Amino acid sequence: MPCGKGTIWDQRLLTCNHEDITPCVTGNYEDSDGSCTFPTFTTTTTTTRSPGTVSTTTTPSGHVCDVTCPTPVGLFPHPRECTEWVHCDHNIPYVKDCPAGLHFNAQLKVCDWPASAGCTSRLDHNCDLPTPIPTIPEPNATVPTPSPLCDCECCHKPAEDCTAYYYCDEHQSQSYHECSDGLVFHPDLSTCVYANMYPECVVTEPPPPCLCNCFYPSEICTSLYHCDGGTPVMLDCPGGLYWNQDMKSCDLPELVNCTMPVRHHLH
């Protein structure tokens, strides 16, 4: 059975995957003339932290965007790409990528499901980062007290529950957030990621009974169960794809009738 539109067979994962991140090898998509079909990329050289420190990155043509930090520290949505975000540290911008299939949520300042992030990529947009609106304290307002947990400004700290995190603001005051369902907080990447990207986080939910030696959907759109000798084993689709029960394969979210529940409560 063929993969859905926009996906191709990934021989490494033995399932359908985004065509722009799947290696073109035997068994994957080939053009009518036998060649591989992928987006055109150009190589650009960018200077990062200090003079003499140069990194070479490969980005799609027309994508390069030189950004300037509006504040010395902060986390900002990329002005053009929903899948990227900018971490400003001592006025130096660092462009970072969300895991494939996720978008940066400008409100929660983490990677999230596209439906929750509410972002639209605009490749023709200017490269200006949004300037934070300064808050004017009300008369007799209480000055925010720095939290002992926060040893940094505009950063994330892991919570006791690995599906949640704390955000430390510019006053080093903490606020508690939860990643959306199906995502966990990765302390090294400082954002929410797919559960299989951080296996140290074990979410204990009892699986449904194994009724057949087959594949069937889980409670989360991006996962599925495989019955192995009567034991249900949860598997994850790659790159934000959804499990398509009709095709018995991972597929693009817009082609699957599944709604991902959202969970990002504030406490």
Describe what you observe in this structure.
Helices cover 1% and strands 33% of the residues. It is globular. The chain has a three-stranded antiparallel β-sheet with strand order 5-6-7, with no helix packed on it. Strands 10-11-12 form a three-stranded antiparallel β-sheet, with no helix packed on it. The chain has a domain at 55-128 and 154-197: Antimicrobial Protein, Tachycitin, Chain A. With 267 residues, the protein is mostly beta strands. The protein is built from one helix and 19 strands. Mean pLDDT is 75; it is low at 26-62 and 262-267.
In summary, what is this structure?
The protein is mainly β. It is built from one helix and 19 strands. The relative contact order is 0.14.
**Which residues sit in consecutive blocks of at least 5 with pLDDT less than 50?**
26-62, 262-267
Q: Which overall shape is indicated by the principal axes computed on the Cα atoms? A: globular
Q: What is the string of SSEs from the N terminus onward? A: EEEEEEEEEHEEEEEEEEEE
Number of DSSP E strands? 19
Query: What's the quaternary structure here?
Result: single chain
Assigned CATH superfamily of the domain at 55-128 and 154-197: Chitin binding domain
| SS content category | mainly beta
- Count of DSSP-assigned helices: 1
